[in-house]
Amino acid sequence: MRLASFNVENMFDRAIALNRTTWADGRPVLEAHRQLNSILNKPRYAAADKAKILQLLEANGMLKSDEGPMMLLRKIRGQLLRRPRKGAVEVVAEGRDSWVGWVDLKTEAVDERATENTARVIAAMNADVLGVVEAEDRTTLGLFNRKLMPAIEAEPYAQVMLIDGNDDRGIDVGLLTKDGYPVRSIRTHVYDADAGGIIFSRDCAEYEIGLPSGQSLWVLVNHFKSKGYGTRANNDAKRRRQAQRVRDIVEARLAEGHAFVAVIGDLNDTPDSAPLKPLLAASSPLRDVADHPNFDDGGRPGTHGNCAAGSKLDYILLSPALFNVVRAGAIERRGMWGGKNGTLWPRFEEVEQALHAASDHAGLWVDLDL
Q1: What predicted TM-score, i.e. pTM, was given to this entire model?
Q2: DSSP one-letter string for 235-289
Q3: Phi and psi dihedrals of 250, rounded to 5?
Q4: CA distance to 53, 115, 138, 150, 258, per residue, from 185 (Å)
Q5: From CA 182, how far away is CA 154, in angstroms rounded?
Q6: Reduced to 3 states, what is the DSSP secondary structure of residue 184?
Q7: Percent of the chain predicted with pLDDT > 70
Q8: Measured between alpha carbons, how far is 351 from 336 in angstroms, rounded to an integer?
Q9: pLDDT per residue over 37-78, tens digit each?
Q10: SS3 label, residue 88
Q11: pLDDT in tens, 328-341
Q12: What is the mean pLDDT of the chain?
């Protein structure tokens, strides 16, 4: 059977902050979005909170209007602001109980060919079990599966699963499986917490997949905290907590007698990083499929951007019983652009420009003799 992982980077919509601008330009918008929603969820707004709300709204073109260039203020009940015709705008809500609403990132449609190329990557990997990262929701993922896969003459998947995670932007992790690989059980870890609070930025979605042999394959789909905004120390600490919790879950499944366990997804850090040591150190029960002699990385170990060693962010990690039955594996880069001129590796002929790229992440797949 074939297991694969792919960061699809949203199949139909993307935040304007990430799609129209460079990451450097988009980063302040994402940080403002995070800060605003964090403050707005407080039970009481102190004077300093109200001042910060006004500062962030003004900086993002939303002081006089609920709609800014890149964000929207959603109001369901009550009022957050008073906007007099003359005079200063003020925060009138006293806290979370005073009103119902939030701040959304505005989205725009992804280039149609890019969406089709996402389907081409998935079809090319031809996995029996596919984990996806940065999918919007189950409805969208199901629509993509039913409409886009046949559009490129590929067979849709039999089952599509996704549980909403903790990210306010709606970038979640999901799973697709073919006939013969039923989803037997689902466990979400969105509420897992430790002394530092909620652990997972999205989820560590845990799926039990039935195999034709009658045995079960346990797949944990992950998308760890990015390096994109916040301090490096805080980001690293968050990923370290996430890695440790995933390891704890894996060890629990192995102790229960489940030999076939895989951790897949975008872990947002490199193999030599301190945050990923709970999963990749010698003491870990997991092995990186990239370390298997039957794995072909195409001469580049990375999975993101230009795919250099320092941009290996995506993983398939296997329990010993799975690592021992690896027959083949590879990185699927043909849906990526590949450097400034798109010449770093072969591409699908439909990827004629950078904006046609399915993702700036490669897909990963492994064949397991199960």
Answers
A1: 0.79
A2: HHHHHHHHHHHHHHHHHHHHHTT---EEEEEE-SS-TT-STTHHHHSTTSS-EEG
A3: -60, -50
A4: 42, 30, 16, 28, 14
A5: 20
A6: strand
A7: 93
A8: 8
A9: 889 999 999 999 999 999 999 999 999 899 888 888 988 888
A10: coil
A11: 999 999 999 998 89
A12: 90
Q: Which two tokens stand for residue 204?
A: 């560590």
Write down the pLDDT at residue 110: 54
Which residues make Cβ contacts (< 8 Å) with residue 191, sequence separation at least 6?
A: 198
173 has which bridge partners? 133
308 C-beta neighbours (distance < 10 Å), count: 12
Q: Which residues of 118-136 are buried (b: 16+ CB within 10 A; e: fewer)?
A: bbbbbebbebbbbbbbbbb
Taking only Cα atoms into account, the Rg of the chain, rounded to an integer number of angstroms, comes to: 22
Q: What is the mean pLDDT of residues 124-128?
A: 97
Residue 8: both structure tokens together: 């699809």
Which residue bears the tokens 């994402």? 30
Rounded CA-CA distance 4/181 in Å is 14
